[in-house]
């Protein structure tokens, strides 16, 4: 199915926009941080790996017509992380995912971005079934998912470990 979603979303503190090549340095602050990658890649990414990740984010938009947004802080213009909908090969359903540079944790940015993404999905891709796959040790992301209205659905084996799938509900789903 071919979808078309907005390339820019706005919240009170963020611009969510398609990632660009010149975001690489700022996004490497996230991807290159082992603590940030603990529950995603499992380790800090090298510069080369984070550049390839950025290329895959840009390519996902070309392939699916939706994807992850670069999170640009409105007050500074700095890119502080990513959030959006991705559907990589082998995933059970499209996933709302998010990640922020450590300096921006516990400030409500992830919840703000996820709420904007869910509102966009309700309007532009209302039939898209949405999940978030979260490692059970990632308590902060579990709180973000639950605050966004997602509920635990089942366990999921990934990378030789048990992860949790949270199903996002919406009035139109």
UniProtKB/TrEMBL annotation:
Listed GO MF terms: acyltransferase activity, transferring groups other than amino-acyl groups
Top-level lineage group: Bacteria
Limits of the N-acetyltransferase domain: 13-150
Designated name of the protein: GNAT family N-acetyltransferase
């Amino acid at each position: 199915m071919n979808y078309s979603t907005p390339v820019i979303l706005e919240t009170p503190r963020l611009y969510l926009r398609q990632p660009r090549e010149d975001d690489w340095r700022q996004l490497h602050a996230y991807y290159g941080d082992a603590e940030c990658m603990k529950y995603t890649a499992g380790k800090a990414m090298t510069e080369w790996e984070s550049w390839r990740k950025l290329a895959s984010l840009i390519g996902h938009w070309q392939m699916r017509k939706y994807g992850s947004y670069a999170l640009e802080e409105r007050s500074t213009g700095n890119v502080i992380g990513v959030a959006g909908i991705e559907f990589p090969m082998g995933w059970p359903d499209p996933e709302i995912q998010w990640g922020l540079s450590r300096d921006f944790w516990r400030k409500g940015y992830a919840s703000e971005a996820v709420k904007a993404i869910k509102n966009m999905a309700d309007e532009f891709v209302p039939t898209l079934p949405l999940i978030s796959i979260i490692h059970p040790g990632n308590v902060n992301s579990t709180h973000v998912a639950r605050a966004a209205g997602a509920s635990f659905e089942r366990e999921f084996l990934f990378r030789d470990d048990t992860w949790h799938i949270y199903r996002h509900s919406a009035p139109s789903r």
